[in-house]
Design a protein that fits this description.
The complex is a heterodimer of chains A (208) and B (319). With 208 residues, chain A is mainly alpha-helical. Chain A has helices at residues 2-9, 11-23, 26-31, 35-38, 41-69, 74-80, 83-106, 113-121, 124-141, 145-151, 153-160, 163-175, 184-207. Chain A has one domain. Helix content of chain A is 82%, strand content 0%. In chain A, helix 5 (41-69) packs antiparallel against helix 7 (83-106). Chain B has 319 residues and is α+β, with helices and mostly antiparallel strands. Chain B has 11 helices and 13 strands. The N and C termini of chain B lie far apart (46 Å). The chains are: A mainly alpha (208), B alpha+beta (319). At the A-B interface, helix 4, helix 5, helix 7 and helix 9 of A face loops of B.
Chain lengths: 208, 319
């Protein structure tokens, strides 16, 4: 456990863990040349980036309930040092996911972007994704120390609570992405729900 | 480790016509390209063991402007939920002991001549197989061009001799919970059911595929008999058919039962009617790389052959 804690304290390790999933599609597309992926490589990249964004979002949101539940656990303390970095990574993956969608549907012409966005706004499945991205954009834009100072800690914290709305939208968006309900939504977000319930339960008990 | 015995028609890789040779039309070119005449003849002998192969290209259904999708992509990117919901899964799971030879299909319902027949016998009865190159457009907004081998559906229906009250054709696929993991998991209501109006089924384009690129159709593409209705979204082209039934009521097709707001009975390719979750105005071309999006054509480019079937119908309501 001590080794894990030490590793997770290291910025290099965390950066690697955040960047490698983004490079992953290179493997099936260029090295293994998996025909089910090269059939439509952009679709694979699109789904993969959204998938990583969802996993990282559920991960970063689990940090604070973990801290409430096991405040003295070194691994949890190590993870909580990187909250902001992981949060910004969620935004970056969501932004890449959206950019990929724009190319996926509209090609490389900039002129097609308004049409693609207009289509997105008319469809709940796509609109929820777009809305979640907008929230992440606001949060990333206000993630600097200067922004915290400018807004004041309390206001900043309240603004950043809308990340839970983004998570709810992401759950819907991911579930609607396939013709049948994808079980991955459950295994990505269910642990977070359980942790949050446990946190609320513990905090209530402490107050009583 | 997977141990499987080869089927009668299975060929060594070396005997399969490569895609570049497929594009040659003259037999002489074909032989010259192969270089070894004896080899070509040997390959023909092996092929003769399978009903209907080798097939002849039907030039009436081979638009030179259409560039067939790579065999590898056609056979590796499959929607066959019986064997899993990911595109890569059917190729793996449908080749793990699922028995498809011999295969019996039943023609029943409102016909004067109901019968049961083995798939190979059926192909011979239909006068062998021919090759047609069709566009395939999936409801998920991707498309391929597939050289199908097989026979026209109308021939089969004519043989069954429909009664006057027959208005629809209902197709049912196999049930094999032991070998089809998707059926075991119950990801859809099985058996998978599809249907056509009788006049749609009798259209010249409606086809029963038994092969792809001049080779027997791989398991993951719907061995051994698979419907192909190229002006409709791909889910209408039901795979691995065991029963064809003439009825007087509109059959309830599987996807419509599951999600009627998104999938209808007709499911005609229509760029003007969007899917609730994505646009149908354009499509991703399989094998098109990182670019590769093109405009979707009305009735998938088969307006001339099928538009008359839907004269006066509101295609927004009858999606």
């Amino acid at each position: 456990m001590l080794i894990l804690e030490k590793l997770l304290r290291s910025k290099v390790v965390v950066w690697t863990l955040l960047v490698v999933p983004g490079l992953w599609p290179l493997w099936p597309i260029f090295i293994r040349e998996d025909a089910s992926v090269t059939a439509d490589p952009l679709k694979y990249v699109l789904h993969h980036l959204g998938f990583v964004a969802c996993i990282l979002l559920a991960t970063v949101l689990s940090f604070s309930p973990l801290r409430v539940l096991w405040p003295k656990w070194g691994v949890v303390q190590a993870l909580n040092r990187h909250r902001r970095l992981v949060g910004v990574a969620v935004f970056v993956y969501a932004a890449l996911h959206l950019a990929t969608h724009l190319v996926f549907e509209g090609g490389l012409e900039l002129a097609a972007v308004p049409t693609t966005l207009k289509t997105a706004v008319g469809k709940p499945f796509q609109l929820t994704g777009l809305f979640a991205f907008t929230i992440l954009l606001v949060l990333a834009a206000t993630s600097s120390n200067a922004a915290i100072k400018l807004l004041g800690g309390k206001v900043w914290k309240n603004i950043h609570r809308i990340v839970y709305l983004a998570a709810g939208l992401a759950v819907y968006h991911q579930a609607a992405a396939r013709k049948l309900f994808p079980m991955q939504v459950v295994w990505i977000f269910a642990p977070l729900v359980i942790l949050e319930i446990a946190r609320v339960w513990k905090q209530r008990r402490a107050k009583a | 480790m997977l141990i499987r015995s080869p089927k009668a028609w299975e060929l060594p890789e070396s005997a399969i016509t490569p895609e570049n040779l497929y594009h040659l039309t003259k037999r002489r070119d074909f032989l010259r390209a192969l270089g070894v005449t004896g080899f070509a003849l040997a390959a023909r002998d092996v092929l003769a063991a399978t009903a209907g192969f080798p097939t002849k290209v039907n030039p009436a259904y081979r638009d030179p402007a259409l560039k067939p999708t790579a065999y590898e992509h056609i056979t590796s990117y499959n929607n066959f939920y019986e064997f899993g919901t990911d595109k890569a899964e059917p190729k793996v799971n449908a080749n793990k002991g699922w028995q498809t030879d011999p295969w019996t299909v039943e023609i029943a319902g409102l016909v004067r001549n109901p019968f049961k027949i083995e798939a190979n016998d059926l192909v011979m009865k239909m006068g062998g197989a021919e090759q047609r190159v069709y566009r395939l457009r999936c409801v998920e907004a991707w498309s391929m061009v597939v050289p199908w081998d097989g026979f026209e559906l109308s021939k089969l229906i004519a043989l069954a001799d429909p009664k006057a009250e027959a208005k629809y054709v209902k197709f049912t696929t196999f049930v094999d919970r032991k070998n089809a993991p998707g059926q075991r998991a119950g990801n859809l209501d099985y058996p998978y059911v599809e249907g056509l109006r009788l006049d749609e089924a009798m259209n010249e384009l409606s086809f029963i595929a038994t092969g792809i690129y001049g080779k027997p159709i791989p398991n993951q593409n719907g061995v051994p008999l698979r419907l192909v209705v190229p002006w409709k979204y791909g889910f209408k082209s039901i795979k691995s058919i065991v029963k064809i039934e003439l009825t007087d009521k509109q059959p309830k097709n599987t996807w419509q039962v599951l999600q009627s707001a998104e999938y209808g009975f007709f499911a005609n390719v229509n760029p003007a009617v969007d899917h609730p979750r994505w646009t149908q105005a354009s499509e991703r071309v399989i094998g098109g790389g990182l670019g590769g999006r093109q405009k979707t054509l009305m009735f998938n480019g088969y307006e001339k052959q099928v538009a008359a079937l839907y004269a006066g119908m509101d295609l927004r309501k009858n999606y």
